[in-house]
Structures are given as structure tokens and as C-alpha cells.
Amino acid sequence: SGTTGFPKGALISHGAIAHSATLSRFMGALQDTRYEEETGETLPDDCRSMATPLVILGPMFHLGGLVPVFRAVSVGTTIHIMSKWNVDIAFDMIETIGMSRLSFVPAMLWDMFRSPRATPETMGTICYMMNGAAPLNPELVAEIRRRMPNCLIATTYGQTEDTAWTTSNSGRTYVENPDTVGWACPTIDVAIRRDDGSEADPGEPGEVWVASACLMNGYYNNPEATSEALRDGWLASGDIGVFDENGLLRIVDRKKNMVISGGENIYCAEVERVLGGMPGVREAIAYGKPDERLGERLAATLVVEDGAAPGEDDVKAYCKQHLAIYKVPREVNSRTDPLPRTATGKVDRGRFLKSVREKD
């Protein structure tokens, strides 16, 4: 599900899939318990993770769509498959089959909340929402809590190479720390390492490394990429992360999404999170452009609501309140058209940056 280069085929063993499905069942039961602890209500039998119908909203050529199927098969629950994302079909499923647990990517939830069918009665039937593929804007987390106060919100972090499971965050902990992806799941080890391979200190960003029984065997016919990714039983994720004071993992960015401007390292995801919190901004993408003096200069494109485009000076002033001065975009553009996306709902950075280069 990557967005920056040519896809590599990850060789996933039956054992890794089986372990991931078992872990998924365990995490589902854990979320059931957490729901009851936080709401003080007994979860109805038809809302429990092992019994409720499972709706696959994402494509099944990614593990994010396949692993839930393996879990459903292992416990004997019903599966409903949506061939292509359609917000009206999603609401049909909620209303006709009693869909009470929803797995989604942020763009899907955005569409649902802005549909006239998103009534309190309809949304109130959902007791559990699991986010994946991309981080939720903190404003969207707050909107979920406002519209659906008794819904347990959760997020996961993982990738195809580790069979889609690494960490999980849910409930009150997630609401209070929406920029984190939680703690390592059971049987999973997570470490933050410097470029020299040494372990980073708490609060120090570094590459996320993962060890588990869910790891791939390697990349198909690509020994060079395999040796770069797998070392001594650990997977180098390619993500930059940091542990906070409570041990919660926060993903800073992909290593490849870093802009070096005037010798300073700028992680685009951090800038995008800040821009996404501006009123009227639906989403944002930050990126580097060639600059004769700085090497690269930081630019940003905002997707805004109709008639809500903030001025460039307003954007920079807002960023200065939340970011170091060198992280403030030097160039700001606005548009109402959504950013290009992959089949899994992630922003297609490669396609977007290609269009930027063609315009320049």
C-alpha cells in the first residue's frame, strides 16, 4: 500500500497470516472489554467482535482487507464485501445488516460525516470504529466523540511486511493522544533506532524496527531490498517514530518524506497535522521544492471547503503558533479538489508530486 515507489511483492507465510488472525481476534476481545470499562455498559452480544457481521470496505489485494477476512473465517462470522467505496452503500449496510463495527480510512469517515444520512440515529448504532492506513486528524477524532459519545475509537499501525499489525491505541487513551498509534500489540516487539543501529533515547526520533512472528519472509525476487529491510529477525519499517513519556508510539513521517531546508530536517507529516487543524482545511500535503539557496524549500497545498481558503499570511501565522520557524511553509497553495489517492485511501504522494513538477 506504499505511495512513493514501485510496489514490491512481500512473501507472507501461512504461519504469519495465522498468527496475525489470532492476534486480531485477541485485540477484538480486548476492545470489547475496554468498551465496557469506559462506558459502564454491557456490550450486546450482537456487537461483540466475534459475533458482529464484518464489513470489508477496503480492497482485498492489501492485507488491511485480507487479515479481517482470515479472522472472520477463523471464528465463523459473516463477511460483507464492498466492491468499491460508496458512502450511500455504506449507510445501506449500517441500516440493513446492522453494521455496528466499522473499519475505515479517514477519507471514508469524512464522506460519511458530510452525508445527510449521518443522523444521530444511524451513527448511534455503531459501537466501535477502527482507523487504519493513515492518521486521523485530531479534529476528526473530536468530531467522532461529539457525534458518537458511546463509540469506542481505535487505530492501528502496521504494514504489509509485518502482516498489518504492530501497535494499537483505543478508547480514552486514543482520544487524549490522537497523534499516537499506541503500544506494541501482544507478541510484538518495537524499537526506535538511530541510523547507526543503536537504540534511541525516549523522546528521540528514529526509525521504527519491528520483531514478531508476523514478519514477511522477504521480497519476491529482490534479495537486495530484503537484506535492507530484514536484519537479525527485525524489520526496518522505513518510518520515523518516537516514544513519548508514557511509551506511546507516535509516527513522525516516512524517512523519504523528509525535507532538508537550509540544513534543517523537516518532517512533512508534522507540518500536515498542524495545517489539517486549521478551520476550513479538509486536508493538507507538505513537500519540498528545489531552492538555489536552501537546497529545498518547504511548500504546502491545502484542500479547503468552498469559500474557506485562508490567505497565505494567515496560514504562515497559524503555523508559527505551532511549529518552529524553519518548519513554516514558504509557499502555500489552496484547492477544493481532493488530493489523489491510492486504492487503500492513502494520499498518492508520487502522483501529486509528479503533477507539481509538471506545472513548475
Key words describing this protein structure:
single chain; 360 residues; alpha+beta; Rossmann fold; Luciferase, domain 3; GMP Synthetase, Chain A, domain 3; 3 domains; five-stranded antiparallel beta sheet
Task: Report on the architecture of this protein.
The protein is an alpha+beta fold and 360 residues long. It has helices spanning 14-39, 63-75, 87-96, 106-113, 120-123, 138-147, 171-176, 223-229, 268-276, 312-322, 349-359; strands at residues 10-11, 54-56, 79-81, 101-104, 128-131, 152-157, 167-170, 183-184, 189-193, 206-211, 218-219, 230-231, 234-243, 249-254, 258-261, 264-267, 281-291, 295-304, 331-335. It folds into three domains: 10-184, 3-Layer(aba) Sandwich (Rossmann fold); 189-253, Luciferase, Domain 3 (Luciferase, domain 3), CATH 2.30.38; 262-359, 2-Layer Sandwich (GMP Synthetase, Chain A, domain 3), CATH 3.30.300. Strand 18 (295-304), helix 10 and strand 19 (331-335) form a beta-alpha-beta unit. Helix 1 packs across helix 2 (63-75). The longest helix is centred in the N-terminal third of the chain and has 26 residues, at 14-39.
Question: How do the strands of the widest beta sheet line up side by side?
Answer: 4-5-6-7-8
Write the element-wise H/E pattern from the N-terminal end onward: EHEHEHEHHEHEEHEEEEHEEEEEHEEHEH
Mean of residue pLDDT? 88
**Beta-strand level of the residues, as a percent range?**
25-35%
CATH class of the largest domain: Alpha Beta
The tally of strands reads 19
Query: Poorly predicted ranges (pLDDT <50, ≥5 residues)?
Result: none
Structural class: alpha+beta
- Supply the number of helical segments: 11
Architecture of the largest domain, according to CATH? Answer: 3-Layer(aba) Sandwich
Instruction: Determine the CATH topology of the largest domain.
Output: Rossmann fold
Question: What spatial form do the alpha-carbon principal axes imply?
Answer: globular
In the residues, how many domains can be counted?
A: 3
Determine the N-to-C terminus distance: 28 Å
Query: Helical percent range?
Result: 25-40%
Whole-number radius of gyration? 20 Å
CATH level 4 superfamily of the largest domain? ANL, N-terminal domain
How does the major sheet shape up?
5 strands, mixed
